[in-house]
Amino acid sequence: MAMPSGLEQRYQIRILLVSGHPAFRGAASRLLKRYDELVMVGIAQGDQEALARAEQLRPDVILLDLDGTGQSGLETISLLRIRLPETGIIALSLLDMADYREAALAVGANALIPKVNLIADLLRAIRAVARTGRIEEESS
Prior knowledge:
By secondary structure, the chain is of the alpha/beta class. It has one domain: Response regulator (Rossmann fold), CATH 3.40.50.2300. 41% of the residues lie in helices and 20% in strands. Helix 2 packs parallel to helix 3. The radius of gyration is 15 Å and the shape is globular.
């Protein structure tokens, strides 16, 4: 049966959330559930769990909380990029300094979103990274 004209075929973006902060995991989970196209396939609480879950689940996008991953979120990003080169990685942080953003991008993150901008920027970032691997202006 043909789809009515004007309806776009929707696909789901599989998300792995990585954060050691229970309150942030809860808030981020509730935010992601607002959007039918986003499916949270798993949660990891730290670096080692993130690596194992990512390899097991093969998400489209990993949201990695740099403020709550243990030893080094930047090191985790680097390892994830090596192990899952096609997976999008969006770093999340309280810090929004140019040096910190550049460091995250240098080790393999596709984007860094300050937590203060999470509600405004997260969906656009996930869509862009899942589609093209980078954040760009969307032409709606």
